[in-house]
Protein backbone atom coordinates (compact mmCIF):
# COMPACT_ATOMS: atom_id res chain seq x y z
CA UNK A 1 0.00 0.00 0.00
CA UNK A 2 1.36 3.40 -0.95
CA UNK A 3 1.19 6.49 1.18
CA UNK A 4 -2.35 7.70 0.56
CA UNK A 5 -1.91 11.27 1.72
CA UNK A 6 1.04 13.49 2.51
CA UNK A 7 0.62 17.05 3.71
CA UNK A 8 3.33 19.57 4.38
CA UNK A 9 2.72 22.56 6.60
CA UNK A 10 4.46 25.46 8.34
CA UNK A 11 6.17 25.01 11.67
CA UNK A 12 5.24 27.66 14.28
CA UNK A 13 7.80 28.83 16.80
CA UNK A 14 5.63 27.66 19.69
CA UNK A 15 6.08 23.93 19.07
CA UNK A 16 6.39 21.11 16.56
CA UNK A 17 3.73 20.83 13.89
CA UNK A 18 2.92 17.92 11.59
CA UNK A 19 4.76 18.29 8.29
CA UNK A 20 3.71 14.90 6.92
CA UNK A 21 0.49 13.03 7.49
CA UNK A 22 -0.03 9.66 5.84
CA UNK A 23 -2.49 6.85 6.11
CA UNK A 24 -5.68 8.84 5.70
CA UNK A 25 -8.15 9.38 8.54
CA UNK A 26 -8.94 5.89 9.75
CA UNK A 27 -9.60 5.79 13.52
CA UNK A 28 -8.76 2.07 13.53
CA UNK A 29 -5.15 2.59 12.42
CA UNK A 30 -2.63 2.74 15.30
CA UNK A 31 -0.71 6.01 15.39
CA UNK A 32 3.02 6.31 14.78
CA UNK A 33 4.50 9.73 15.57
CA UNK A 34 7.90 10.50 14.01
CA UNK A 35 9.84 13.35 15.65
CA UNK A 36 12.65 14.54 13.41
CA UNK A 37 15.92 15.89 14.71
CA UNK A 38 18.98 17.67 13.39
CA UNK A 39 20.53 14.78 11.48
CA UNK A 40 17.58 12.53 10.68
CA UNK A 41 13.85 12.30 10.29
CA UNK A 42 13.50 14.82 7.46
CA UNK A 43 12.23 14.37 3.90
CA UNK A 44 14.44 11.29 3.50
CA UNK A 45 11.94 9.48 5.73
CA UNK A 46 9.22 9.39 3.06
CA UNK A 47 10.00 5.75 2.29
CA UNK A 48 9.89 4.92 6.01
CA UNK A 49 6.46 6.53 6.29
CA UNK A 50 5.24 4.53 3.32
CA UNK A 51 6.39 1.27 4.88
CA UNK A 52 4.65 2.05 8.15
CA UNK A 53 1.43 2.91 6.31
CA UNK A 54 1.69 -0.31 4.30
CA UNK A 55 1.70 -2.26 7.58
CA UNK A 56 -1.50 -0.57 8.72
CA UNK A 57 -0.36 2.48 10.69
CA UNK A 58 -1.34 6.11 10.52
CA UNK A 59 1.79 8.26 10.59
CA UNK A 60 2.47 11.82 11.69
CA UNK A 61 5.94 13.30 11.22
CA UNK A 62 6.92 16.54 12.94
CA UNK A 63 9.97 18.77 13.12
CA UNK A 64 11.56 20.04 16.28
CA UNK A 65 10.33 23.44 17.44
CA UNK A 66 12.53 26.48 16.83
CA UNK A 67 14.06 27.59 19.07
CA UNK A 68 14.21 24.58 21.38
CA UNK A 69 11.80 25.40 24.23
CA UNK A 70 11.97 24.40 27.87
CA UNK A 71 12.20 20.76 28.87
CA UNK A 72 8.57 20.58 29.95
CA UNK A 73 7.40 22.11 26.68
CA UNK A 74 9.10 19.49 24.54
CA UNK A 75 7.25 16.65 26.29
CA UNK A 76 3.95 18.50 26.23
CA UNK A 77 4.27 19.14 22.50
CA UNK A 78 4.42 15.40 21.80
CA UNK A 79 1.34 14.82 23.93
CA UNK A 80 -0.50 17.59 22.08
CA UNK A 81 0.29 15.98 18.74
CA UNK A 82 -1.17 12.70 19.97
CA UNK A 83 -4.25 14.56 21.26
CA UNK A 84 -4.69 16.23 17.89
CA UNK A 85 -5.09 12.88 16.13
CA UNK A 86 -7.33 11.21 18.69
CA UNK A 87 -10.22 11.08 16.20
CA UNK A 88 -8.26 10.29 13.05
CA UNK A 89 -6.17 7.39 14.37
CA UNK A 90 -6.07 4.93 17.25
CA UNK A 91 -3.91 6.68 19.84
CA UNK A 92 -4.44 4.17 22.65
CA UNK A 93 -1.14 2.46 21.79
CA UNK A 94 0.92 5.15 20.09
CA UNK A 95 4.46 4.42 18.92
CA UNK A 96 6.89 7.36 18.87
CA UNK A 97 10.07 7.43 16.76
CA UNK A 98 12.67 10.02 17.74
CA UNK A 99 15.66 10.88 15.56
CA UNK A 100 18.66 12.36 17.44
CA UNK A 101 17.35 15.53 19.20
CA UNK A 102 13.80 14.33 18.59
CA UNK A 103 14.42 11.44 20.97
CA UNK A 104 14.49 13.76 23.97
CA UNK A 105 10.82 14.86 23.78
CA UNK A 106 9.83 11.31 22.81
CA UNK A 107 11.31 9.88 26.01
CA UNK A 108 10.05 12.71 28.21
CA UNK A 109 6.50 12.30 26.91
CA UNK A 110 6.61 8.52 27.43
CA UNK A 111 7.34 9.09 31.12
CA UNK A 112 3.98 10.83 31.61
CA UNK A 113 1.69 9.73 28.75
CA UNK A 114 0.36 6.18 29.15
CA UNK A 115 -0.82 6.11 25.54
CA UNK A 116 2.78 5.81 24.35
CA UNK A 117 3.31 2.07 24.08
CA UNK A 118 6.83 2.21 22.69
CA UNK A 119 9.62 4.64 21.86
CA UNK A 120 12.15 4.03 19.08
CA UNK A 121 15.33 6.11 19.25
CA UNK A 122 17.95 6.65 16.56
CA UNK A 123 21.15 8.34 17.71
CA UNK A 124 19.39 10.25 20.48
CA UNK A 125 21.24 12.23 23.17
CA UNK A 126 19.78 11.65 26.62
CA UNK A 127 21.87 13.36 29.25
CA UNK A 128 25.56 14.05 28.78
CA UNK A 129 25.28 16.41 25.81
CA UNK A 130 22.78 18.52 27.77
CA UNK A 131 24.64 18.33 31.07
CA UNK A 132 27.92 19.41 29.45
CA UNK A 133 26.72 21.69 26.65
CA UNK A 134 30.20 23.08 26.03
CA UNK A 135 30.98 19.67 24.52
CA UNK A 136 28.80 20.68 21.58
CA UNK A 137 31.50 22.95 20.21
CA UNK A 138 33.87 19.97 20.09
CA UNK A 139 31.53 18.04 17.79
CA UNK A 140 32.28 17.75 14.07
CA UNK A 141 31.55 21.07 12.30
CA UNK A 142 28.89 19.48 10.10
CA UNK A 143 27.07 18.23 13.22
CA UNK A 144 27.29 21.64 14.91
CA UNK A 145 25.87 23.29 11.78
CA UNK A 146 23.02 20.75 11.63
CA UNK A 147 22.18 21.29 15.31
CA UNK A 148 22.19 25.05 14.84
CA UNK A 149 19.90 24.78 11.84
CA UNK A 150 17.50 22.41 13.59
CA UNK A 151 17.20 24.55 16.71
CA UNK A 152 17.15 27.95 15.04
CA UNK A 153 20.42 29.01 16.68
CA UNK A 154 22.22 31.95 15.10
CA UNK A 155 25.43 29.92 15.29
CA UNK A 156 27.18 27.16 17.17
CA UNK A 157 28.01 29.50 20.02
CA UNK A 158 24.30 29.74 20.93
CA UNK A 159 23.78 25.98 21.14
CA UNK A 160 25.07 25.50 24.71
CA UNK A 161 22.51 28.06 25.93
CA UNK A 162 19.62 26.58 23.96
CA UNK A 163 20.27 22.96 24.98
CA UNK A 164 21.40 23.47 28.57
CA UNK A 165 19.02 21.94 31.08
CA UNK A 166 17.40 19.42 28.73
CA UNK A 167 19.11 16.39 30.31
CA UNK A 168 16.70 13.60 31.26
CA UNK A 169 17.01 12.56 34.90
CA UNK A 170 17.02 8.95 36.15
CA UNK A 171 13.75 9.52 38.00
CA UNK A 172 12.10 10.51 34.71
CA UNK A 173 13.41 7.47 32.86
CA UNK A 174 12.23 5.17 35.69
CA UNK A 175 8.65 6.26 34.93
CA UNK A 176 8.67 4.93 31.35
CA UNK A 177 6.62 1.74 31.22
CA UNK A 178 6.56 1.12 27.48
CA UNK A 179 9.45 -0.62 25.75
CA UNK A 180 12.22 1.62 24.43
CA UNK A 181 14.18 0.56 21.34
CA UNK A 182 17.60 2.23 21.16
CA UNK A 183 19.52 2.38 17.88
CA UNK A 184 23.05 3.70 18.08
CA UNK A 185 26.41 3.69 16.30
CA UNK A 186 29.91 3.50 17.85
CA UNK A 187 31.02 6.81 16.33
CA UNK A 188 27.77 8.73 16.73
CA UNK A 189 28.77 11.98 18.49
CA UNK A 190 25.33 12.49 20.06
CA UNK A 191 24.71 9.13 21.75
CA UNK A 192 27.51 8.65 24.27
CA UNK A 193 28.42 5.41 26.09
CA UNK A 194 27.36 7.14 29.30
CA UNK A 195 23.87 7.72 27.87
CA UNK A 196 23.57 4.10 26.82
CA UNK A 197 24.60 2.97 30.30
CA UNK A 198 22.03 5.31 31.87
CA UNK A 199 19.25 3.91 29.70
CA UNK A 200 20.21 0.32 30.48
CA UNK A 201 20.13 1.05 34.20
CA UNK A 202 16.86 2.94 34.31
CA UNK A 203 14.49 1.63 31.64
CA UNK A 204 12.04 -1.05 32.67
CA UNK A 205 11.97 -2.64 29.19
CA UNK A 206 14.49 -1.92 26.44
CA UNK A 207 16.07 -3.28 23.26
CA UNK A 208 19.48 -2.02 22.10
CA UNK A 209 20.72 -2.30 18.54
CA UNK A 210 24.23 -1.33 17.41
CA UNK A 211 24.59 -0.20 13.81
CA UNK A 212 27.99 -0.13 12.13
CA UNK A 213 30.26 2.94 12.06
CA UNK A 214 28.62 5.91 10.37
CA UNK A 215 31.54 8.25 9.83
CA UNK A 216 30.75 10.48 12.77
CA UNK A 217 27.02 11.03 12.37
CA UNK A 218 23.77 9.47 13.57
CA UNK A 219 22.66 6.22 11.88
CA UNK A 220 20.43 6.72 8.87
CA UNK A 221 19.24 5.13 5.65
CA UNK A 222 17.67 1.83 4.69
CA UNK A 223 19.00 -0.39 7.51
CA UNK A 224 17.72 2.12 10.09
CA UNK A 225 14.30 2.31 8.44
CA UNK A 226 13.97 -1.48 8.31
CA UNK A 227 14.94 -1.73 11.99
CA UNK A 228 12.37 0.92 12.92
CA UNK A 229 9.55 -0.75 10.98
CA UNK A 230 10.38 -4.12 12.52
CA UNK A 231 10.46 -2.60 16.01
CA UNK A 232 7.13 -0.85 15.61
CA UNK A 233 5.54 -4.05 14.33
CA UNK A 234 6.99 -6.09 17.18
CA UNK A 235 5.90 -3.50 19.72
CA UNK A 236 2.37 -4.80 19.29
CA UNK A 237 -1.02 -3.86 17.95
CA UNK A 238 -3.61 -1.72 19.80
CA UNK A 239 -6.03 -3.53 22.09
CA UNK A 240 -9.37 -4.64 20.61
CA UNK A 241 -12.79 -4.37 22.08
From TrEMBL:
Q: Which organism is it from?
A: Streptomyces gardneri
GO terms assigned for molecular function: catalytic activity
- Bilayer-crossing residues are none
Chain segments annotated as coiled-coil in the UniProt record: none
The UniProt entry, under Pfam families, shows:
Abhydrolase_1
Taxonomically, which superkingdom?
Bacteria
Gene3D superfamilies linked = alpha/beta hydrolase (3.40.50.1820)
* Region span, Disordered: 1-22
Which residues does the UniProt record annotate as the domain AB hydrolase-1? 89-181
What name does the UniProt record give this protein? AB hydrolase-1 domain-containing protein
Amino acid sequence: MAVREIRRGPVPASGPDPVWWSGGSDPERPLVLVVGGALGGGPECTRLLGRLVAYGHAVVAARLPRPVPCAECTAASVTRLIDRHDRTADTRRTHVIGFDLGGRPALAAAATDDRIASVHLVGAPVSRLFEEPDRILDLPPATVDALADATGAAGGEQLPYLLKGLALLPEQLYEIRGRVWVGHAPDDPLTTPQDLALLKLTLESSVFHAFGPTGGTSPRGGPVHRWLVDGVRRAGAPPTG
